[in-house]
Design brief:
By secondary structure, the protein is an alpha/beta fold. It folds into two domains: 201 residues, Rossmann fold (3-Layer(aba) Sandwich), CATH 3.40.50.300; 72 residues, no CATH class. The chain contains ten helices and ten strands. The strands form two sheets. It has a six-stranded mixed sheet, sandwiched between helices. Strands 2-1-4-5 form a four-stranded antiparallel sheet, with helices on both faces. α4 packs parallel to α6, α5 packs across α6 and α6 packs parallel to α7. The mean pLDDT is 88.
Length: 290
């Protein structure tokens, strides 16, 4: 019964997950904004547009659940709601069975240790005034203030080494690194707390194709090594084809198709999915893995 319920929630018959398998679950998430509104607007009225319109998903521990769609379809808004960086207008959100929308203060901070984000722009997401050691180690300072300074430095150096940057990176500034190296810094910052879930929001879209491929390979290696679960946001089907376990195709704030990656890429059911695939000359071979 629980498996059937989950499958109906996700719209994905392949996702018949038991409650114990589900790491992250969202039901009927909605978010709208006032069109033309902004920080300096005094009007509380006016037309609204819906960025996320009743999205439901269930993400299994250890998988890579990819959300793909054109720019402006609501992918980033969804990602930020799932981490409670912005609040949904309605819907429910659970992480490891706990109701995230009811948490606040220290309880919410404790859950956020398990959920981290890799941002799209490796240039804008790193504070140019901070040294790399401070940037990567900052989550430890926030969530593990009890650690000795030497231990924080050791952990920071170790995770930088793991993402392919030496200990000499600790005292350097972001502008001294290439785009691919900066994204590795962002990945190190996200992983230093050893989270269970990583939301990767267009992590290679600002990088050259060859550099992006290296970053994707690194993410895959880290997933295996640390037992990570990825929610992977992208506008690129060729990118998604290399990493996804399951794919949700998003259009105008809604999921129009959800399924196993091979099924969505090879036998799409929705016309919009077929349209996206038709715009791609050829899809790369998928990497092996979970």
């Amino acid at each position: 019964m629980a498996n059937d319920r989950t499958a109906s929630l996700t719209g994905d018959p392949s996702a018949a997950l038991s409650p114990s398998e589900i790491l992250l679950e969202a039901r009927e998430l909605r978010k709208s904004y006032r069109r033309g509104g902004g920080v300096f607007s005094n009007s509380a009225k006016g037309p609204r547009f819906t960025a996320v319109d009743g999205v439901t998903l269930a993400v299994k521990g250890g998988e890579t659940f990819a959300v793909v769609g054109e720019s402006g379809c609501g992918k980033t808004t969804l990602a930020r709601m799932l981490l409670r960086l912005i609040e949904p207008d309605s819907g429910s959100l659970r992480f490891e069975g706990r109701d995230l929308l009811r948490l606040s203060g220290s309880a919410l901070r404790a859950e956020r240790r398990q959920m981290q984000m890799v941002f799209q722009d490796p240039f804008a997401s790193l504070d140019p005034r901070m040294r790399v050691g401070e940037i990567v180690g900052e989550p430890l300072a926030i969530h593990h203030a009890e650690l000795r300074q030497t231990e924080k430095q050791e952990r920071t150096a170790a995770i930088l080494e793991r993402v392919g940057l030496g200990a000499d990176a600790l005292k350097r500034y972001p502008h001294e690194f290439s785009g691919g190296q900066r994204q590795r810094i962002g990945i190190a910052r996200a992983l230093i707390l050893r989270p269970k879930l990583v939301v990767a929001d267009e992590p290679v879209s600002a990088l050259d194709v060859s550099v992006g491929a290296q970053v994707l390979l690194l993410l895959k290696e880290l997933q295996t090594e640390f037992g990570l679960t990825y929610l992977f946001i992208s506008h690129s089907l060729p990118v998604v084809a290399q990493v996804a376990t399951r794919i949700a195709v998003m259009r105008a704030g809604r999921f129009v198709e959800v399924g196993l990656a091979d099924q969505v890429l090879q036998e799409p059911k929705d016309a919009y999915t077929r349209e996206l695939l038709g715009a791609v000359p050829a899809l790369p071979c998928r990497w092996s893995g979970s």
